[in-house]
Amino acid sequence: MAATKVIREVLEHHRRLRTGGCTGRVCPRCLRHHRDAIAAAMARGRTIEFLLPAFPTKSPNPAKVLGPLPDLAEELALRFLESLCERIADAYPPGARIRICSDGRVFNDLIGVSDDNVTRYVHELNRMIDRVGATHLDQFTLDDVCPGDDHAQLRTRLTAGRGPHPDELRAEVRRGGDLVHMYRGITRFMLEDLSVPGYTGSRAALQRRSRELAYGVIARSRAWDALLAELFPDAVRLSIHPQPCSTRKIGLLLADTPDTWLTPWHSAAVDTGDGRFTLMKRAEAEAAGARLVTAHGRPSHFVLPRPGTTGHIPVSATGAPHHAR
Question: pTM value?
Answer without folding.
Answer: 0.88
